[in-house]
Amino acid sequence: MPTKRTVPPPPDGDAFGNRLARLRKAAGFSQRDLAKEINISQRMIAYYEIQTTHPPTHLLPVFAKVLGVSADQLLGMEKVKEVKGRDSRLRRRIEEIEKLPAAQRKQIAQYLDTFLRAWKNLEGKS
Q1: Region 31-56 average pLDDT
Q2: With 90 as the cut, is the pLDDT of residue 94 above it?
Q3: Residues spanned by the domain of 111
Q4: Which CATH number is 55's domain given?
């Protein structure tokens, strides 16, 4: 009977689920948003983050792409360079806006210009 092999934890001692949760939050995703992006249930994201120490190998490339890291970084084999001040939710929204027809993009740009002018005026009065 073959013996069960266990894979040692990564050198930093960080479990896959903890790393996944940290990278998800850093990328600006809720569990629900990440699940929707990957096309799995939110319960599975919660399971991967809390209940399992075994990464879902079939989803590693998908997680890595969506979270903007390499599979090695996701697995803890390489350090992840933390980028502070990056709002991935905003970036994703901008990418969606870029896909809209020109007329809708122009309307959104006008709205943003109006909002930014009003904000600058309020900041100037403070």
Answers
A1: 89
A2: no
A3: 88-125
A4: 1.10.260.40
| pTM score, whole prediction | 0.60
Report which of 73, 92, 83, 78 is spatially closest to residue 33, judged by C-alpha positions.
Answer: 92
Q: Which string of DSSP letters, residue by residue, matches 72-102?
A: HHHHTSS-----TT--HHHHHHHHHHHTS-H
Instruction: Over range 50-68, report the average pLDDT.
Output: 86
The token pair at 38 is 């990957």
Q: How far apart are CA 36 and CA 46, in angstroms?
A: 13
Report the domain count for the chain. Answer: 2
> Is position 93 within any domain?
yes
- pLDDT given for residue 86 in this prediction: 52
Residue 9 resides in a domain: no
Q: d(Cα 67, Cα 38) in Å, to the nearest integer?
A: 10
Is 41 contained in some domain? yes
Whether residue 44 is contained in a domain is answered as yes
Are the beta carbons of 105 and 98 closer than 8 angstroms?
A: yes
